[in-house]
Amino acid sequence: xxxxxxxxxxxxxxxxxxxxxxxxxxxxxLTLEEIAGRLRCSKSTLYSLAASKEQLVRAATVHFFRGATxxxxxxxxxxxDARDRIRLYLEAVGEQLRPASARFMADLADNDVVREVYERxxxxxxxxxxxxxxxxxxxxxxxxxxxxxxxxxxxxxxVRIQRRQVREATGLDDAQAYQELASLVTNGxxx
Length: 191
Fold this sequence. Notes:
mainly alpha, Tetracycline Repressor, domain 2, 10 helices, 80% helix, elongated, HTH_TetR
């Protein structure tokens, strides 16, 4: 039993280190051998996490977004004001993406398997924004808007941020872009 616990702890530690490595440096240029060397483990240890480099990168990306989602949700726990909830939610999304280097985001955009993880998380975030807007309209804190439309526009902007199109057009980094998006959405919903 103690061996299993240590093994699980080591795998969790390796996954966290892998996430940090990939966020900082991207992944397309790294071989499995280079990843093993950087993490100070064997390739067979990496194969215990996933059967291929692509699956390893996908597992790390899922792990990153799962943790990011939990931290974003914690940022709005206990916040009652609908405007503050949306602002804090979108700003927290941007803050969670701050460690992701331009190279990681470019690699993510170029890889169908990993991009799907990001797009799925973006869709979940858009539904969450829609729910927050709907709650704000119901409570009378927001003017009557079509919540699904506002969430769709928000999601489209989130995808543009992910694809680095907002950075190219405006010079804003991801966190700054999410702050501006939060301001735009919350001010647009005001009574």
